User: What shape does this take?
Amino acid sequence: MRATTTRKFHKDRGLVARMYFTLFMLGVLYAIFTLFLIAAGTPLVLVAPIVGVMVVVQYYMSDRLILMSTGAKEVSAEQAPKLHLMVKTLADRYEMPMPKVAIIDTAVPNAFATGRNPKNALVAVTVGIQQRLNERELQAVIGHELAHVANRDMRILAIANFLVTLTSFLMTMLFWNMLFGGMGGRRNNGGGMMMVYLVTILVYFVGQLLVLALTRYREFGADHTGAEISGDPGALADALEKISGTVAGIPDQDLRKLQTANAFLIIPAALKGQGSMNLFSTHPPLQERVRRLRELEQRMQYGVR
Amino acid sequence: MGWFSRTRTPKDDWSAMSSVTRVEAKLQELGEITPARRAGLIYTDSAEITFLSNIETELKTVLHEGEGATKTAFSIKDDDRGMRWIILEDGNFNDLVSSVYTVGNAIDSNQGGDNLLAAVFEMYFTGEVDDRTFRSGLRTYWIYRYDRKAFYPFVPTGDKEGDRDRPTEARLGYDLRKHGLIVERSLTEWMGLWGIPF
Assistant: This one.
């Protein structure tokens, strides 16, 4: 019987492969870009360390920064015994140390996790999410957030953040440089400068797309890991539908259109320079996540893989 | 734990249809709904399926002849989106539901299963449900999708695609599930049917 089989920790191999490929492409893109900048003789590579420092600071202080910027207050086990117990139980299942727990005093339902590694993790939930979800759903949400920590998503996010911030920095600098630096620098490399600018813009957009794909995979990955840990993918799907105002999930589509092909939506969304994984990143779309979770739920129920 | 903690209702047309009868009885007893005594089945017509091309005669046989026939009245209508509707009317709600089931089943067992899209029940809210959010006399539809084997409420606010009262639908769905209706869990599958011809 299925009840006696041991539950294994399955990774979504396709997802992992796609993720590493995207990461690889991102690396290739920026390696070529760096070579290009050096070949073009731009001293702009010097910007890299500055941005690097910024990102490193953010990376190492993310938990404190998040606490400051969101007004989240760390709570002790005495202050929030139920929440602590829930986080503890889940952390045990992930075999990670007990993260810090914080509460944000707002009715807006949300949750997030941050921390560069499981030892420095912080999980924060809002008052609103605790009120709206039942225990099973809240557990799924916290499980999803802890999955981000367990999967070391903050590190990948930091790298992505670094690259994108760097390029946008360069873009702005080049822009002003061309506007006001024109008089002195015009002598011989005006055209070269333009070229560098255009390439930077191109790299920025391609990089942005890759990073979006990456966060998308991290999000699906965390959904998947969270579901494997809890064994109940439907719980997160329910939670997502419930908090997103539910309303958002109900489609505009007419049922009769179902027989024609489904359109694939590409939603462009800018990567926000945050140091945390938010429960509702705009990408991937909620519907897609819910659909995958439901699929996983079915597979788990009927033992098909 | 986890994998086994949630009880599953087997998903098939019959259990779904019987859940309608039960929920309707319960809610009517509470004074909350009045069924409109009307229901419809929507499908894509096909000349290659004999049952569908002879639909009128076939329906007469299925609904009006033989022992225990429900004698439910029916009519056929085409909508402006190229789909065909079988509209059923019966003063007895249980008969209405069983007729919907019978017709769906007959189409399915005569090679028409893939053509069947949905069954729709019209329901009026006459009372207040739970938090008094439902207007009295509000017209709602309970849509049953044959591919998903589950129901969901549909409250259109106009004939234009996308015009629907989502908050009411969400709350209604929650309520109906609580009362035992097999409700589609994934809200993203709650697609509307605008311009229902009955």
Remarks:
- Residues 1-9, 183-187, 260-275 of chain A have pLDDT under 50 and may be disordered.
